[in-house]
Amino acid sequence: MKQTARNLISFALASTLIVGCGGIKQVRTHGGGVAPLPAQNLAEVQRLLAEAEAAPSPQKEALKISAANLLLQTNTTDSSQEAASIVNGLNPQGLPLNSQAEYALVKAQLALSNNNTGKAFEWVDSPNVINATNPKLTKQSYQVRAQAYERNKEYRAALDEWLLALPLLNSDEKHIAHKAIWRNLLNLDPNTLSHLASQTGDQETQGWVSLAAIVKKPEDIDQQIQAFQQWQQQWPNHPANQQIPEAMRTLEQIAAHRPNKIALLLPMTGSLGYAGKAIRDGFLAAYYHALQNGHVVPEIKVINTSKHSSIDQAVSEATAQGAEMIVGPLKKSRVKQLQQLSPTIPTLTLNYGDREASAPANFYQFGLAAEDEAKQAAQQAWHDGFRAPVILAPKSSWGNRVVTAFANEWQSLGGTIRGEGRFGGSSDYNGVIGSLLSPRASTLRAHEVEQVIGKQIRHNPNRRGDVDMVFLAANAKQGRQVKPTLAYHYGGDLPVYATGTIFTGNPNPAKDSDLDGIMFPSMPWLSDHFDDPLKSKIIDTWDRSNTLYGPLFALGIDAYRLYPRLPQLKTAEGTRLFGASGSLTLNPYQQVERTQPWFFFKGGKPQPMPVNAYQQENNPSAVHYGFGQE
Fold it and tell me: This protein's superkingdom (predicted)?
């Protein structure tokens, strides 16, 4: 028996509707923090569907489309599924232009709910939407397009769409839009923000941009407070002055409570001695840079943890000397011990302990974990449209951690892993990759067919067809062998996403040409485009800062700039620190997470990767803007 539109509405989770003789009621909501539709909107959905039951075509289809569009405002999985059920099978042809536009917007939002931004753009940029005469649909098209751009990490484009939408929004909608404008501004890199400041002639936009520029120069809190006060005097009627971003509201509080004496707990001797010294030198370089520029600085006491048999002894020494904050330790096992000790003063570790366990309220973790890069690779590949990865990684505890991080993140996005290969040395790359991609299977099938028909057939071996990308956890030496071996086994067309370990930190075109095409996240410090004046000073002073110890110098710099900002990152949602090691945010476990820019090898040299470098819509073949086309 065919379902009616009325009984299609049956939410089990967020914003649930139950339509029946008793009218409308809301049942248990989703835990994701999305508010359910207001009762009047639920009633409106019911009314539209009830009218659709009795209405002739094309009015029936137009009413169903409007009901689906209203349901999608809940922004939940269940509302998307129900909206899809309502419009499934509808033919918008013959409907009024505005109804066709509304149908396209529904399809665009459904595509976004499935993480298919390419298809969302197809729908929202259709002529029906562009030519729509209803201002509500025009407004909605800006909003949907902005969401799609932001999902693609095209923050400047998303910002432009929100600015176009603003004049059409009511006061409640403007409140949401202002938050989105601020969020996208904070995600812009400094060069894009500077270019926007020089190009825009709109006063309100200029105010937003100048405020974001203040936030993006967080070296000294006192100077930032002064700059914000000047901004408030210059822009008394600006929306951000009426709705001050949380990151700015907390400035005076964190300035008043920043520590005056810091104990830097690092190994100065032993196997981790060189690493500890590199972090120390980066930390102190940032300290002296701040001091020379007239900033308020704390007293620093360096404690050599190598001299202590346990971390609690080093902590006792720090507290005995009056430390108000601890930065360190570096060794993972000692971070875990300190995590269990629950230190009484604020602590910023320089590695991660147990990332699944709870931590004391004043315990923060920061480091250069490859697991974060694996998660970022999963997110990037998913947003680029890939859905069927295989994994290549070394047989090691490091490899286990990275693979687990990628797989967990991929599965949380809704994906499945197609296969996994582990290599233990140079001798088994061929066997591992051959087994993973299975080109031999197609050759065996061809031989079977030859035996059946009694004659030879022309056959081109091919790899398995259910794979569309490779996640590679490897260093540069391993990657130089993996990439050609992939090509040998007919996987040369597969996009490869890697961890930052694939790049040594020093461009070497002669050796790294075999890495061409591999994409990886890398800290700003290692990029030629990173223009922090502190980098050139450090490289001139310490030769090893531009070698494999470079990331550790960056870790030290960011630790110094991060320590007073921890309360701000903790309380002000969306706040980030743009550091030498990446864009830094704080997750609910009080672990600093790094987001890094993406690069790809071309001619053996890392090149910045264009935003949304891959376009793939239900199609395993993708074209890379960076090296497939010029």
Answer: Bacteria
Contact 587, 477 (CB under 8 A): no
Strands of 519-521's sheet, edge to edge? 419-423, 389-394, 469-472, 496-498, 519-521, 598-602, 605-608
- Which ranges in 460-606 belong to alpha helices (H)? 476-488, 509-512, 533-541, 550-562, 566-571
CA angle 119, 120, 122 (to 5 degrees): 60
d(CA 381, CA 207) in angstroms, rounded, equals: 35
Pairing of strands 519-521, 598-602: antiparallel
The answer to whether the Cα torsion of 448, 451, 452, 455 is positive or negative is positive
Distance (Å, whole) CA 449 – CA 455: 9
- Rounded distance between C-alpha atoms, residue 579 and residue 523, angstroms: 9
DSSP state at residue 96: -
Mean pLDDT by 10 residues, the chain (630 residues): 38 33 33 46 84 92 94 77 91 92 97 88 95 94 95 90 95 92 88 86 92 83 92 95 87 90 97 96 95 94 96 96 97 94 93 87 94 94 91 96 96 92 84 83 48 57 84 96 92 96 93 96 88 85 77 96 92 84 92 93 92 41 28
pLDDT at 328: 97
Q: Under DSSP, is residue 382 helix (H, G, I), strand (E, B) or coil?
A: helix
- For residues 433 and 412, what is the distance between their CA atoms, to the nearest angstrom? 26
Q: For strand 325-327 and strand 347-349, is the pairing parallel, antiparallel, or unpaired?
A: parallel
Measure the CA–CA gap between 522 and 596, rounded to whole angstroms. 6
What whole-number distance in Å separates Cα of residue 433 and Cα of residue 423?
9
- The residue length of the chain stands at 630
CA distance 92 to 475: 53
Cβ neighbourhood burial of 101 (10 Å; 0-12, 13-18, 19+) = buried
* Joined tokens for residue 611: 């935003």
Residue 291 CA to residue 302 CA, distance in Å, equals 17
Structure tokens at 593: 């997470």
- Please check whether residue 392 is in contact with residue 433, taking contact to mean a CB–CB distance below 8 angstroms: yes
Q: Which residues contact 264 (CB under 8 A, 6 or more apart)?
A: 280, 283, 300, 301, 302, 303, 327, 328
Q: Number of helices (H) and strands (E), helices first, in the chain?
A: 27, 17
Largest Cα–Cα separation, the chain: 89
- Any residues with CB less than 8 A from the CB of 527 and at least 6 apart, and which? 597, 599, 606, 608
Query: HSE on the CB side for 556, CA within 13 Å?
Result: 27
What's the pLDDT score for residue 8? 39
User: What single DSSP character describes residue 262?
Assistant: E
CA distance 624 to 630: 10
Which pLDDT does position 14 carry in this prediction?
A: 31
Integer angstrom CA distances of residue 429 from 140, 400, 518 = 51, 18, 17
